[in-house]
Amino acid sequence: MTHPIPPLRITDPAAFGRVAVLMGGNSSEREVSLDSGRNVLEALRSRGVAAHAVDGIPNLLRELQGKEFDRVFNILHGGDGENGVLQGLLQTMGVPYTGSGVLGSALAMDKIRSKQVWLSLGLPTPRYLRLQKGNDVHAAARELGLPVIVKPSCEGSSVGVSRVLADADVDAAVELAIRYPGELLMEQMIVGDELTVGILGNVALPSIRIVPKGQWYDYHAKYVAEDTQYLCPGLSGVEEEEIQRLALAAFESAGCSGWGRVDVMRDRDSGDLYLLEANTAPGMTSHSLVPKAARQVGIEFDELCWRILEMTV
User: Which parts of the chain span the membrane according to its record (predicted)?
Assistant: First the structure.
């Protein structure tokens, strides 16, 4: 069972001091991060917070050495902003920041390691194989059984991800995925409904069922297309309670905290739920999912940003 949304703990924006909204950076998700950051910046300023944009970790470090900021709203997507590097830096410097700590950030960013944690606890996730240099990728696909998903283990926003429906498509999928850092992951493709659950503190928000116009929820459907449907709540009754329970368990077992999002597939035939990944700095764009779920329980975007920042005090 999830807990009710608590009242705001802080009402005076001056309590936050000067806030760096960290965005952009140099990961493959830079443009999405800039979009998210601009939205967060505007929302915090609209509520009187002394918020300022900072592009990338090197610029933030220079500002922090000059003691320019009291805390950081991290909205860097991917790369060192989401893999524990930034979190370790801020922790060492004693600067409060939004989102998960070092362990949760590192585990959630690495899809292979987060799967290993979930499987050790009996939490459901699609069968997978770790692809290393020299592996027979065609044999791996046969072992899992087509169709499969091939993706980099440490990227987000569907970057480098391919759906492989036939053996002839395997090589191209691997060629795309190896352009990105980290190991490769080949995963059983679950055919069914794609869902996501936002996490705010120790609360699982209502699920969202994503219905793209095309065959699947790729980068274009996430950030460009205006015809993707978002159904919230995505499930009902006992099924909705179960997906919220599962998402919160997955988030917490990976060491995540603060806020984030857990992506889930629901098998079309069996109705079984499968964990895909946890996100510790999810998007805050006009298409993003956590704000949509928060709105379902009466939390508008500016209040959502305030609540996330509030967890740093």
Answer: none
